[in-house]
Amino acid sequence: MNKLSVGVVGCGYWGPNLIRNFYENDNIEVRYVCDTDPGKLGKIDRRYPTVKTTVNYQDLLADPTLDAVVIATPVRAHFPLAQQALAANKHVVVEKPMCMSSAECEALVALAEERKLVLMVDHTFAYHGAVRRIKEVIDRGELGDILYFDSVRINLGLFQSDVNVVWDLAVHDLSIMDHLLGVTPKSVHATGACHAGNGIEDIAYCAFSFDNNLIANLNVSWLSPVKVRQMLIGGTKKMVVYDDLTPMEKIRIYDKGISVSQPQNDENRYEKLVQYRIGDMYSPVYDQSEALKTEVAHFVDCVRNGKRPITDGRSGLRIVRMLEAIEASLKTGQPQQICLDGAGVETAKKTVSTAGNKR
Prior knowledge:
Layout: E1 4-9, H1 15-24, E2 28-34, H2 38-47, E3 52-54, H3 58-61, E4 68-71, H4 78-87, E5 91-94, H5 102-115, E6 119-121, H6 129-139, E7 146-156, H7 165-181, E8 187-193, E9 203-209, E10 215-221, E11 223-235, E12 239-243, E13 251-261, E14 273-282, H8 291-305, H9 313-332, E15 336-337, H10 345-358
Parallel strand pairs: 1-2, 1-4, 2-3, 4-5, 5-6, 7-10
Antiparallel strand pairs: 7-11, 8-9, 8-15, 9-10, 11-12, 12-13, 13-14
């Protein structure tokens, strides 16, 4: 079977990790690496002498034998680069967040679906062994009905000049929440503050409401004296603590919870009895493979077998819609509704179809 030919755009912070994992996959040929900085390309030349390097993105699009393009550039460039690649009939992997706006995401989803191409978003944590193990536990019903999802992602810096802490850090937790819960929140109420004098929030608290009394809370910060990467998921049967920074037992599942009963005495019918359940704790094993390695293998499987990626374009769209709602809530101080998954995509599809007919 022929190898999947791939071109990677962007050699900044995350690009080299993508290049390495695509290069090391036996079913992939990394044919191009593109960047506007010749110095960065020089490092690629020395490490991967068989890969063509170029400062011209059109070299990738003009190659009819190139199967896919991987985009690891600043987010403002995601939409035009991905749109051009899809228009050139290339499958696309795009870094997170998918685009700067939900409208741009909708256009990419519509174009990919119209041309039957794979559009995959690099929400890496969805492919992390620990997160996949938690997903299995939830899907088996081991936790019961999910009651809450709490996440803390805080550290000191790195301050960004173009995006706030929500677009920088919360995108990870939103993608994990979206993947694990499988439902889109109805609304979000966010509060935040800027302490660097640049108008960009460096601390934010985001409270989400769902159907069925499910709630979620995200805390992200660039101003913490310690680095914390912790997540708590509570269910009616069991609860999970996921600590990504712990070297051992990253996942802990607790057989703890409460049960509420109504007293038999009618005189006290408005008083409810709360009983506590305290059982065992165990730490399940999980796949220790690098998340990006798993993600790349999944991409190959999706392209070859026509499968829908776990983190497809629609999941990327949901995350950006949540980010937009958080942004609006930060500005207004009021709760914001979050659009449903399909809204906007069908309109974008009609636009793509009309443009295709004109050609």
